[in-house]
Amino acid sequence: MCGIVAIVLKEQTPVAPILKDCLQRLEYRGYDSVGMSTLYKGSIYTKKDKGKIAEVDAKLHFDELPGNIGIAHTRWATHGGATKVNAHPHQSSSNNISVVHNGIIENYLDLRQELEEEYDHTFISECDTEVIPHLIEINLQNGKNQLEKAVKKALKKIRGSYALAILYKNNPNQIILAKKESPLVIGLGTNAVYAASDIPAFLPLTNRVIILEDGEFAVLNYNNVKIYKTENHDTIISRNPQIIDWNSEMAKKGGMPHFMLKEIHEQPKAISNTLRINNFKYSPFIKLLNDAKNIFITAAGTSFHAGLASSYTFNKISKLDNNPIISSEFIDNVGGMIDEESVVLAISQSGETMDTLNAINYAKKKGAKILSITNVMGSSIIRMSDHEIITQAGPEIGVAATKTFLVQLICLSQLSLYLAEMRGLLNSAEIKFLKQNLMNMPRIIEKIIANQEDNIKNIAQHFANKSNFLYLGRGINSITAAEGALKLKEISYIHAESYPAGECKHGPIALIEKDFPVVFIAPPDDTQSLLISNIMEMKARNAKIITVSEENDNKIHRISDAKFIIPSKIPDIFTPIAYIVPLQIFAYFSAVFRGYDPDKPRNLAKTVTVL
Length: 611
Ligand code: F6R
What we know:
By secondary structure, this protein is of the alpha/beta class. Helix content is 37%, strand content 23%.
């Protein structure tokens, strides 16, 4: 997730200070590097560097860029580290074209090779975006000296997602936009047109907004906007602006009251982006895991839950012997077993958690190979790793991990599938079926949020004055129960414990009395009949039964006092990805009804850098 801004003003009005202001309101979308291009008297001027907007501005003085038209970008690195050359905007070889981009170009390596070999173009960055100005340039050079056509032709070759703003030196009063799967909105001002990844960027300047849709292409001038379908450039789309009635705090959160809710809603997109990670990123993981003498999975908190869930899938479908150890216990527990033939898989959204860093630092010194899955490029854990995969959730601001958990599960599920495939443990039909189901997850999560949010809110209100909850599940969903309980306790301050449901009879059941709320994660898998017995044990003690279960699962619905509904037919190993979502929403509304700010729970920090 990055933030882009594009502005066209009437002649003589300097654009750079306004671009900078707008960009600052998008910094929540990424903040590892920043850049700006303006167009003045037929030349493109660019300044960029790594760092936050204020830091880079203090050094480079963006306001000095001349001209009344420009584009700007605040980056959250995905392809290529946070460096000056990888920062946007990116230019063509001749500096005729400058581009800012939010999204992922999946086939950039192929495109880059083609541009280098067939057109002798030179690339200076590791960023996927750099292929775009080069592709546009070759189309212009091929005699099609019209930017719109050249851009359209370039887009045909690109696979992936994009929100693009393009500046061309021969079009002194025009910016081109294109959108596919990454957000782009246009703001209509007086003698000014703005475009950005999100409305807050320009909200103090105008509240007249046009939302660009997928597959659309727009040409901005200071006094008009033309929108077309990228595929059919002949028909102009007419769309009236909407009037946005938000204050600036609401605007930063996309109109949502809290970042946590916004981030829960961003999960389908975060998953789609993570599913786009190229296979070759997984190759060194597969090889090292397959060849290792012993494998340790280490992480803290929610990331450890992702690790525990992956331990089930590694056991079940990849037959990969593995040992999940919470990071703070790693050295004391398995320290003596680590050697040069060990592989440690570290999972951390921030890449900075001290417990996890400490564990892998120890393992590295013992000669183990370190693999990591994090959401933050350039983080300390990545620097210490032999190989890394960067999940694509974009920045997570709410302290409670939500979208980063889902993308970790997605990434680890992919890894299990690739391993199972490589080891010949599943036949091609089974692999195809599971891959297709993983690809379906964004739509399933979208459906859960759209259909269940109001229901979950009502249930959360009903239970908001309870002091204790028990969360129970079996198999892989004993981990979903653990994560659900963690979400509830950390933001609503309700005491919530989780157990594998079969363990309850060994002690915790002593807690149960009339109306004690017990949440059961109850998908229709092989564990369900035993889970039903566990539900009946609780019902017999007059507990209140809340279930997460499939639509039409009447066996479960009949014995539930309240239910969160999940679409049917999710393969068992992927159920945590869907079944955790209602529990995140439940925790969120529980905190809100109890009068707490879910984004900033007491005593907690987003990144825990102490041992
Ligand atoms: C819970 C939560 C924490 C983190 C834990 C590890 O919602 O956010 O439990 O999961 O502090 O953090 P990372 O993943 O950054 O290593």
